[in-house]
Structures are given as C-alpha cells and as structure tokens.
Design goal:
Length: 208
C-alpha cells in the first residue's frame, strides 16, 4: 500500500473531499494545516513559530512541517499509508516525503483563482466533528450537523487579505509540484469548479 496526496489551491475542496476518500480507501487523513492549528491551540513551540506565518498567509518553513510529518508517519495507523491533505506544498517537502512513503496517486482539484476568494470567505466548519460547510454553497443541514453538536468555527486566516497571500504562495511555491509529480507518473487532475458530488465521483473514479 502507498499514500495519496490531495493537491490544490487553498479552498479547492481538499478537506471536503477527504471524507469520501477516507471512507473508500481506509487511509487516515493527515492535514498539516489541522496539525499546525492543533499545535497553536496547545501553545507548543511549533505552534508559536507557525502562527506568525499562518496569520499572514505564508508557508511555514519546511523543517517545521517535515518534523511534524515524520512524527505522524511513525504512528500505528499510518503504517499502510495515509491521505495527505495540504502537504507537500514545496519541492523540498516532496523530495523529503519520497524517502518516507510511496505516493501512488496525487489527486489535484483544479479551481480558478476567481472562485477561491468566495469559497474561503464563506467557509465554516463544525468544531465538534470537523465537517466543512459553506455559507452559500454547502450549508449546515437544517437538522444540524450529522454529528449532533454543531459548533460553528471560522478560521482566523479565512479573510480576503490573507487569501491573496495564500494564493500567491500557492502559485510561487506549490504549483511547481504538479510538473514534479507528472514526471513521476502519479499526477491526476479533476475540474473542481463543479458541484461537490461531481468532483467526488471523478476523484473516486481515479482511485478505482
Ligand atoms: P481546502 O481544504 O482545499 O482548503 P475546503 O474543503 O475547506 O478546501 O473547501 C473550501 C470551502 O469551499 C468550504 O467552505 C467548502 O464547503 C466549499 N466547497 C468545497 N467544495 C466545493 C464545491 N465543489 N463547490 C462549492 N463550494 C465548495
Ligand atoms: P488551506 O488549504 O485552506 O489553505 P491549510 O489548513 O492547508 O489551508 O493551511 C493553512 C496554513 O497552514 C497555510 O496557509 C500555511 O501557512 C500553513 N501550512 C499548512 N500546511 C503547510 C505545508 N505543508 N507547508 C507549509 N505551510 C503549511
């Protein structure tokens, strides 16, 4: 078994699609963004260092990220592979990852920049279960979150000024990874500018 990478700009729908893919493959989700937010909440030194970068929409240094990933991949549930969400984001991260696990699929969700701002600025999630919703495109069901306790959470970095920096970082530092993984024969792209179910079907089709 190997690992999967969910790839795409901020707000492309990686977290939204992760749930289906986890169900289909049984691989645990490893989101470096979630790990960094947990480190900030815990007040750890990694969290303190990362926060300044995240608040302005810049990438956290590779050595910090790789330290987190190395620790995570030693955990029991990671031994048959994982599904990475938001990692790797730079060529040095991908190079280091190649020594840690085999990547079988890089699934890219393509969404044009002009859609990203509206997606990110309307994002809301459930603080209890982590489900991702949107004020307009994917509302919390009127019966509430399926987990039973909806706790509304919005990310501090989900605002218009930070989004522009995050998009800039994506185009400068992360998008070159598409060609890097194409050369290695594992890159697949889907059109993410469609409804959530249509995107899910394409992604699951690529895995089967
Ligand atoms: P990422 O993990 O790539 O940053 P998310 O999965 O958090 O992205 O999605 C960003 C926002 O866009 C969320 O509010 C989500 O509900 C919404 N969203 C995700 N996929 C779609 C889609 N196909 N169409 C419209 N909105 C979407
Ligand atoms: P999104 O995909 O919605 O932009 P994430 O939760 O993946 O959000 O990331 C939030 C922030 O955490 C990023 O803007 C960046 O500062 C930091 N981050 C997350 N993953 C990485 C990574 N692999 N490398 C560098 N920085 C990261």
């Amino acid at each position: 078994m190997g690992s999967i990478v969910l790839f795409g700009p901020p707000g492309a729908g990686k977290g939204t699609q992760a749930a289906n893919i986890m169900r289909e493959t049984g691989l645990p989700q490893v989101s470096t963004g979630d790990m960094l937010r947990a480190a900030i909440k815990a007040g750890s030194s990694i969290g303190l260092e990362a926060k300044a970068y995240m608040d302005r929409g810049a990438l956290v240094p590779d050595d910090v990220i790789l330290g987190l990933i190395q620790g995570r991949l030693l955990e029991d549930d990671a031994k048959n592979g994982v599904m990475f969400d938001g990692f790797p984001r730079t060529i040095p991260q991908a190079e280091a990852l190649a020594d840690l696990t085999t990547i079988t699929h890089v699934l890219a969700i393509e969404v044009p920049d002009e859609r990203i701002v509206e997606r990110i600025c309307g994002r809301v999630s459930c603080g209890a279960c982590g489900a991702v919703y949107h004020d307009v495109f994917n509302n919390v069901p009127s019966s509430g979150c399926p987990c039973g306790t909806f706790i509304e959470k919005r990310r501090a970095d989900d605002n218009e000024s930070t989004v522009q920096n995050r998009l800039h970082a994506y185009h400068e530092q992360t998008s070159p990874l598409a060609a890097w993984y194409q050369e290695r024969g594992v890159f697949h792209a889907v059109n993410g500018d469609r409804d959530i179910n249509a995107v899910s079907q394409d992604l699951l089709g690529l895995l089967n």
